[in-house]
């Protein structure tokens, strides 16, 4: 779908997958004016294809659009794009445990204009790719590198938007994590409060059963996190969103107040954190049953193995 000043959203169409032609002066190539989403389609045992809380992705795309001075795509157009892709390419949705069709909606400034201002011409696309199980051989706890030298986002910046620049900023710290034999990197904000991993939110489980997740204006509000926390509330857990300092994390683990730490996001769903490593320390993290049991409940809903009492699923192939 295209958008232009004066023309609004127009030219919705389905076209064969292939290269996009862009003017070398297209604003996105110079100023990074672009946003995206990540969402999955799941094949149920009866063959039907469903997606999970697409309205939430559509609304988040709108919030990202506002921050990046891009036009807001109506949520109904967003959902329609998912349905149309499934109508032509739904057969690519794999079946089987933890298999899905990963859907990647994205929007970028395509106007050829070298001045720095919001582009007058924008394009929205949706592509897809079959995705296998994120973890081969079962869910394993991941090790996390604490990034002290680099920030993912600053106060007032674009941290809460799903925009490429945030991911560009995380590539070097992620490489640093690999160099320290860690799987993922965790970012702190300027007050040394925990933000998130490069592509997942963090949740702490306390001894009294309370789940605490960092809240801050520079964190991407994950839909997996929101759903997992809702399932925990359904089970009677107290859930808190608040600032969590690095000191609270490390002391909580050392004293036994924090009994589980896990990360969550669309790609990996839920993954226990097994180790936190910094320049001068290595903290083993406690792992427990709650993260894996919430993961199982959520994936059961997504794959149609358990009743969807929250009305989170939307059938795409009818
Ligand atoms: N934080 C970041 C930076 C992410 O890229 C993602 C993945 N979209 C998440 C958190 C988790 O969000 P969600 O659960 O909606 O996938």
From TrEMBL:
GO terms for molecular function: branched-chain-amino-acid transaminase activity. Pathway: Amino-acid biosynthesis; L-valine biosynthesis; L-valine from pyruvate: step 4/4; Amino-acid biosynthesis; L-leucine biosynthesis; L-leucine from 3-methyl-2-oxobutanoate: step 4/4; Amino-acid biosynthesis; L-isoleucine biosynthesis; L-isoleucine from 2-oxobutanoate: step 4/4. Keywords: Amino-acid biosynthesis, Aminotransferase, Branched-chain amino acid biosynthesis, Pyridoxal phosphate, Transferase. Its cofactor is pyridoxal 5'-phosphate. It comes from Microbacterium koreense. This is branched-chain-amino-acid transaminase. It catalyses: L-valine + 2-oxoglutarate = 3-methyl-2-oxobutanoate + L-glutamate; L-leucine + 2-oxoglutarate = 4-methyl-2-oxopentanoate + L-glutamate; L-isoleucine + 2-oxoglutarate = (S)-3-methyl-2-oxopentanoate + L-glutamate. The keyword Transferase applies. Belongs to the class-IV pyridoxal-phosphate-dependent aminotransferase family. InterPro entries: Aminotrans_IV, Aminotransferase-like, B_amino_transII, BCAT-like_C, BCAT-like_N, BCAT_family. Coiled coil: none annotated. Pfam families: Aminotran_4. It is an enzyme of class 2 (transferase).
């Amino acid at each position: 779908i295209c958008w232009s000043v004066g023309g609004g959203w127009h030219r919705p169409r389905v076209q064969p997958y292939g290269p996009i032609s862009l003017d070398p002066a297209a604003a996105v190539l110079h100023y990074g004016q672009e946003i995206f989403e990540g969402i999955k389609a799941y094949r149920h045992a009866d063959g039907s294809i469903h997606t999970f809380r697409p309205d939430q992705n559509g609304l988040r795309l709108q919030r990202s659009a506002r921050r990046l001075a891009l036009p807001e795509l109506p949520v109904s157009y967003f959902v329609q794009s998912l349905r149309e892709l499934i109508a032509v390419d739904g057969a690519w949705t794999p079946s089987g445990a933890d298999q899905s069709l990963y859907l990647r909606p994205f929007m970028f400034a395509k106007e050829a204009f070298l001045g720095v201002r919001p582009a007058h011409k924008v394009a929205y696309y949706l592509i897809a790719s079959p995705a296998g199980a994120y973890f081969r051989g079962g869910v394993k706890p991941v090790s996390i590198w604490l990034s002290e030298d680099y920030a993912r986002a600053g106060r007032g910046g674009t941290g809460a938007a799903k925009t490429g620049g945030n991911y560009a900023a995380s590539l070097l710290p992620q490489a640093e994590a690999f160099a320290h034999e860690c799987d993922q990197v965790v970012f702190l904000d300027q007050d040394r409060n925990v933000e998130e991993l490069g592509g997942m939110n963090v949740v702490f489980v306390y001894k009294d059963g309370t789940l605490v997740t960092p809240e801050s204006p520079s964190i991407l509000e994950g839909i997996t996190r929101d759903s997992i926390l809702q399932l925990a509330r359904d089970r009677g857990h107290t859930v808190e969103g608040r600032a969590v300092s690095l000191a609270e994390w490390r002391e909580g683990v050392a004293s036994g107040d924090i009994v589980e730490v896990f990360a969550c996001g669309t790609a990996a769903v839920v993954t226990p954190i097994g180790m936190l490593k910094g320049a001068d320390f290595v903290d083993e993290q406690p792992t427990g049953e709650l993260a894996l049991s919430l993961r199982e409940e959520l994936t059961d809903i997504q794959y149609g193995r358990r009743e969807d009492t929250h009305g989170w699923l939307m059938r795409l192939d009818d």
